[in-house]
Amino acid sequence: MIAKRLAKMDLFAWTSQLALHQSRRAVETLYWHRELPCSCSKPILTLHRRQGLHIIDLDSPWSPPRHLAHHTPWEVADVQWSPFAIRDYWVVSTSNQKALVWNLAMINIRSSVEHVLHAHSRAITDINFSAHHPDILATCAVDSFVHCWDLRHPSRPALTFCDWFAGATQVKWNRQDPHILASSHDRNLRIWDDRKGAYPLRSIEAHTTKIYGVDWNRLETQYLVTCSLDKTIKVWDYTKSTDEPERVIHTPYPVWRARHTPFGSGLLAMPQRGDNDLHLYDRRIEEMKGKNHTQPLVHRFSGHHDQVKEFLWRPRGNVTSNVDDRDFQLVSWGTDKLLRLHEVNKEVLGKVGYQKGMEVKRTTNSTRKDAVYKTFRDDPLSRKTIGSQDSPIKTQLRLEHGTDGPGMSSMSTAGISRASLPFIGGYGLEGFVSSGRSKNPANKNDMDPISWMRGVKIGKHDSSPSGMHQSTSAILSPSLKADPSWENFESLGEEITASGDRFPKVNFDEVCFL
Q1: Where are the domains of the chain?
Q2: Which of 11, 148, 397, 415 yields a CA-CA distance of 20 to 30 A from 50?
Q3: pLDDT digits over 180-212, tens only?
Q4: What are the CB-based long-range contacts (under 8 Å, 24+) for 176-179?
């Protein structure tokens, strides 16, 4: 019976719209734990705001997120989850000139920050994990420097590049070549090779205004995409000596981000202003029309009432025996404080050259192979991670003697050292990282269950602008509670929320869904 119910909920999650409303200050950025294909890991999402990290388990959207406190006055530029199965507990976020490496499996009452990377003299603008080595991370900042870090020795950068003339806005490792990375500086694109010293391998004057988005092709080594406020998206082959793009897509809005889709030949663009939707294009060139032909829009993902701040893809399934058997959802976050999951139907997938079950000749570099299906929403202090009778001290002694700890893998990786072991003491920076758990251990979540559930809406696709049923929208719109459909709850979560509203003196310590 439970298995049947879970299967029904899973199917509903992929054929429905999901919106999570955060009633507090808007979250600056988010990162998806399953952004890369071939992942077996649990669908976990990271939201970051000035008060710290929020870890949301999309298998259980009604459950309040795990909150890791870090109070800072600085805007969060980026947050990324490690794409590697053997480092699945690492999350990196920015804090002005510093990058914080969070260890979500670390047993520590004070803080979950394992490393603080500090070498930039100005605010960090972007961070990016290598797709080839689990310990390699790149950061770039307004000081024009690009630092490459080896997290086995985090005290200083392992390699540094510099433009000298303009601050950096983006840095991205090549998905196929472990030695190549790209960075954007004002209107210029720099291609670097870590074997060639500090001089760029290739410099391209790519746009007429500042570049705000860079993304490498997932299959082809030499191709990458840039976007700018000049209302264009350009596809480049950096191996060519001329500054002529392979393809130009003209848009009616300034483009803040443009990235390859993990399926087919799609490009998804996020406007910087003037439009609240996400726009899907086909990057394939029609030979009869030429590279500068204005490509029509493939699909528009709507639903936000304000600017979209970030988007990511949620895959389900795997690529096995050269057969791509994956489904996809689009996850988006906006300044309207809504986290939305958009369905991507077969018609949309087909327009960019993808069909479920199709044969693929090449696949992306898989970093999620043999990943364990687990969640990081639960605090490691509240669960026993190694042995039911082990204390934290015994656990640490066992880790020091070589037994795999939280987030560790017994798989061997040639040429790659084992992960840095979680430790009890935490990162010794007095006053830099504050933890709400030490002041109020009982309040491990940022809000009570009913307050969180009040902001969750799940509904099927329909023709309404919000994409939700009116009875579901009534949870967030008190004026609609008089509607007769208010009593027709679509889920147990909505019924519990309504009960909490009707009986305000009843306190819910925890709500558990089977």
Answers
A1: 1-24+448-514
A2: 148
A3: 999 999 999 999 999 988 899 999 999 999 999
A4: 176/216, 176/219, 176/220, 176/221, 176/365, 177/221, 178/130, 178/131, 178/132, 178/133
